[in-house]
Amino acid sequence: MEKNTLLKSTLLPAFSKIKKKDMHLAMKHLVAENQKIVNNIEKLKILTWNNFIYKLEESDDKISKAWAPIRHLNSVMNDKEIRIEYEKSLGLLTSHYSKIGQNKNLFSQYEKFYEQNKKKLNESQNKLLENTLRGFRLSGVHLDNKKRKLLRSYQERLAKLESKFEQNILDSSNSWSKNFKTNKALSGMPQSSLEIAAETASRNKEDGYTLKLDQPCYMAVMTFAHSQNLRKTLYLAYASRASKEFPVSDKWDNTKNIEEILTLRQTMSKILGYKNYAEYSLATKMANSTNEVIKFLDNLKIKAKSKSKKEIALLKQYARKKLNMESIYPWDIAYIAEKYKEENFGISQEELKKYFPVENVIKGLFKLVKSLYGIEVKLKKTKEVWHKDVRLYEIYDKNKNLRGKFYFDLYARQNKRGGAWMDECIQRRKKISGVIQSPVAFITCNSSPPTKTSPAFFTHYDVET
């Protein structure tokens, strides 16, 4: 265990030293350590913030620091070995924390500590305790033994299904490709997209150009490809990922997973005393009721629907007059809209990209946040990243104090989950010594990568994201 990098409590993960076989072993060790601490706290007669709250927080933080890179690598560098280690670790953590959430003795210690100290604690401390007590109730601590055990089994099953759902989307996306020996069928697509398609073909040991279902390739086809049949082919493949309609195979079909996920969520909510999962979900959110949410969405729908109908009518008219298209389909919308904007407003998404080289946008973004908030973002050179394109940045305040760090993973690639998101690597917290632990985040995007002959450029949508 001494050589397991994930157990070393350094500020940043040592990605180059993480061994896949160590992932589950690290989590197993930390969970066992956490359980021992819980067992000791249950027996304490005198509770203080240091021997109780901090003690648990320190242990939970160790688990979080080890779990974060495992969880992240599963999303951005997914392979068979990482997936196995991730799923074993996910099962272990779900089981452990569902039991912690139903631990009546630990819950009693929290209740006792809160009642005895709430008048002496500050607002933040009281809020933390109130949220923790609420978490126990939402975990079913108040239920009888039979219902607690049943709820735990449902939680563990749900975690597996949700993970499987995500993996099926990734696997089906990765499985699809379409190769063209020449670029004739790809007429209209930007040169940069053709270069990426050519490089993809080369990596696959194919001639010509290969299209995939990653976001940059998909959007390039939908927006620029003149061939309606090509747009239709990619649209149907993309829309049917992880379904029985997927053209490659139905082995990743998520239909049964979705049905079981919905059933489990509803069943668990009812066990906890809620009418449905939506009501249960709102227990930790700002909205007061499901009716309030529905009312908001209905109001939004009324305002958006009339506007969208007008825009669709406009595109239909333009398609008939200018593009000789009597009927339009979902795979035509982006293409027609692009043509309309080019003709009527002189705006082309591909032309706009020329004004957004990645390096310039990043510099401009950091300059903007400095002028608004007085913070400075600096590149930190490091080899401890999971891919050569990943960068690490540090954030400093106007007094030159380090306030946090973040990893920037900008480009789409094989075995990387689609979309854009931010996730926690290390949480900000005050240690028992009084030292503030600086937060570290993962910021992940899926924009077009640079090619052998061209630097990377952002679309306007990428810049907004």
Key terms:
16 helices, 4 domains, 465 residues, single chain, Glutathione S-transferase Yfyf (Class Pi), Chain A, domain 2, 5-stranded mixed β-sheet, alpha+beta, two-stranded antiparallel ribbon
Present the secondary structure layout.
Blueprint (H helix, E strand, L loop, with lengths): L22 H20 L6 H28 L3 H22 L2 H14 L5 H16 L6 H31 L2 E3 L10 H13 L5 E3 L3 H10 L3 H12 L15 H17 L5 H5 L8 H33 L10 H13 L3 H5 L4 H16 L2 E5 L10 E6 L5 E10 L9 E6 L2 E2 L5 E2 L2 E8 L12 H5 L1
Task: State the CATH class of the largest domain.
Answer: Mainly Alpha
Tell me the fraction of residues in β-strands, as a range: 5-15%
Question: Within the largest sheet, what's the order of strands?
Answer: 3-4-5-9-6
Question: What distance lies between the first and last C-alpha atoms, to the nearest angstrom?
Answer: 41 Å
CATH architecture of the largest domain: Up-down Bundle
Unreliable runs, pLDDT <50, ≥5 residues? none
Please give the radius of gyration in angstroms: 26 Å
Estimated helix fraction: 55-70%
| Largest sheet entry | 5 strands, mixed
Number of domains: 4
Give the helix/strand class. alpha+beta
Order of helices and strands: HHHHHHEHEHHHHHHHHEEEEEEEH
